[in-house]
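call fold(seq) -> tokens
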Amino acid sequence: MSHIVPALPYAVNALAPIISEETISYHYGKHHAAYATNLNGLLEGTGLENLSLEELLAAKEKWPEAKKTGIYNNAAQVWNHTFYWESLTPGGSKPSAELAAAIDKAFGSFDEFKKKFVADSVGNFGSAWTWLVKLPDGSLAIEKTSNAVIASTGKPLLVIDVWEHAYYIDYRNLRQKYAESLFEIWDWARASKRFA
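ret:
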């Protein structure tokens, strides 16, 4: 099985003006795609080529020692980017009543959640990801990861990519404006299904 970048759940221009067609063309069409290409190259001859992405990530003990870092970085980045694109939708949506109640319980209100999520995204130093996760006890938390690391404290509900390539074409160095703008296109309907 060859690892490929899944099709976007919308057209490349559908998130404009929040995320431009140019950004998606580079970020999804070139950057994300390169991780899949690199991963396929690393897996050649390992006997792991036919595993799904999830199976591959769960089989770390089978990875050749010399390729472990490369396999993880590329597989995780394919997974993270796919999850990021699926966290967004044209026009945005609203959280379910259950998810909205969990947000209020965890953060005080949706507005307070937004402030904290934006602040944590802006303050997440360097190339990084900021996640909303459902913890094992059913509560919500924000998790920050660096480089290619996938959220691990709970079940991911949505994620913001704060690597510079995700926003620099549209926002230059205004990471906060980018993080705030994504609240207009978050796919809360999908996050609500994940929460349920």
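Strands lie at 128-134, 140-146, 155-161.
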